[in-house]
Specification:
This protein has 416 residues and is mainly alpha-helical. Helices cover 63% and strands 1% of the residues. It has 23 helices and 2 strands. The chain has a two-stranded antiparallel ribbon with strand order 1-2. A hairpin with a 2-residue loop joins strand 1 and strand 2. The longest helix has 19 residues. The C terminus is likely disordered.
């Protein structure tokens, strides 16, 4: 009976002109949506119907319909979603017929509820565990949508985007690493950006797997020299961006109690981070800044009227030293082995040189003070290094000079 009723509804639906019979089509789609929740027979009848397959191509997989006939478009996607719930037969039929189009449209603009429903369909089929959707296809589709919504600054809550990506990073670390290694550079950066975002939200739905976080440290060690080789030449923006985002993840995880067991024994990571910091500080002392972007220490340099490129906050160099100092501070915390390596490599003088204010590296000064503190706690040798320093007067500070601040006092002078 339900097989017959489903066929009748589909027959009526595909025979109507969408421009002239919107109300009738809407009613038929709602009836179909309900019918599919009542039996597997209805689901399988719809999945195997050639007429409805063509209707999907014209309505569900047509981006123009998202705006021209939004209600019909959304209802059609909901019908499609109901057809694959807990039904391996229909999942196979639908994915074999429409899988490529579902992947393409799930990350296609205009962004909104349509993308979320398409991801819900992918999520149901992917979690069936029968391999209809490869891990690579699922991850790449999500990452392309993540890129799109960031570029469009879209505020819509794509809950199934988060369900899928969190499945990878929280439950499936080894498969995630395998997929990550096969992604192209843009998708790798997008994936790392999502992980950094997830960590910044305090890992709301479970901790990122230990295996994945440790792999990120390995990737950083292997690739971090590109920050010097490539950023200085300003040739390949994306590869340094990948390393920069790896550094954001390490900085966030190493400072979180949830991940306190991830990096404390990874002394090679500490050596790599602190060495890169020393290289950047030394490069900045060269007459040309070592090819690095010149520090912004004057108020006039951050003013809208300055001649400095206003997009400096989007460059790989932005926050780079801050992140390195932040990682160093976190990795020094209650870690005697890292403190020893810091002494051996004379890290403290480098940290002291990072106590200047620089608009390109916000909060670098504060993080460097914390790093020095962490280096000195329960470490008499580090304390002795600080005690042996000689006061040579106040360090020059362009911002304080511009504000007429001297030793904490505000000097007001009459310029008339």
């Amino acid at each position: 009976l339900q097989h017959s009723e489903t066929n009748e509804l589909i027959h009526s639906l595909v025979g109507l002109d969408r421009g002239e019979h919107e109300e009738e089509i809407t009613a038929l789609l709602k009836s179909l949506r309900l019918l599919l929740t009542q039996s597997r027979e209805s689901q399988e009848t719809l999945a195997g119907n050639e007429g409805f397959s063509k209707f999907l191509d014209a309505v569900a997989f047509n981006p123009q319909m998202r705006t021209d006939q939004r209600i019909i478009h959304n209802l059609t996607l909901q019908v499609l979603a109901n057809s694959v719930v807990n039904n391996e037969v229909t999942q196979t039929i639908i994915w074999n017929q429409h899988g490529l189009k579902i992947c393409e449209q799930a990350c296609a603009p205009p962004l909104g509820s349509s993308n979320n429903v398409l991801l819900m369909i992918m999520y149901n089929i992917y979690l069936s565990g029968r391999g209809l959707i490869s891990e690579n296809a699922a991850l790449q589709t999500c990452l392309r949508l993540w890129r799109e919504l960031n570029e469009a600054q879209c505020s819509y809550n794509f809950e199934y985007l988060h369900f899928l990506l969190e499945h990878f990073i929280v439950q499936n670390g080894r498969a995630c690493v395998s997929c990550y290694q096969r992604l192209d550079t843009e998708d790798r950066v997008a994936f790392l950006d999502y992980v950094a975002h997830y960590l910044s939200e305090n890992s709301p739905n479970g901790e990122v797997t230990l295996f994945l976080l440790q792999h990120f440290a390995k990737e950083f060690r292997i690739k971090s020299d590109c920050l010097l080789r490539e950023t200085l030449k300003l040739k390949h923006e994306l590869h340094p961006r990948e390393v920069h985002t790896l550094l954001r993840i390490i900085a966030s995880a190493s400072g979180s109690e949830k991940y306190a067991n991830v990096y404390p024994t990874d002394q090679s990571l500490f050596i790599n981070v602190s060495s890169l910091l020393r290289c950047l500080v030394e490069a900045g002392k060269q007459p040309d800044g070592g090819g690095l972007d010149k520090p912004m220490t004057k108020l006039e340099e951050v003013a809208l009227t300055s001649g400095i490129d206003s997009t400096y906050e989007k460059k790989v160099s932005f926050e780079l030293k801050t992140l390195l100092v932040r990682c160093t501070a976190n990795l020094l915390y209650k870690n005697q082995a890292n403190k020893g390596y810091g002494l051996d490599t004379q890290l403290l003088p480098t940290l002291l040189e990072c106590t200047n204010m620089d608009a390109r590296n916000p909060l670098m000064r504060e993080w460097s003070i914390l790093a020095i503190r962490n280096a000195c706690i329960d470490c008499p040798e580090a304390q002795q290094v600080i005690a042996g320093l000689t006061m040579q007067g106040s360090a020059p500070n362009d911002i304080l000079t511009e504000l007429n601040l001297d030793m904490g006092a505000l000097r007001i002078s009459d310029r008339q």
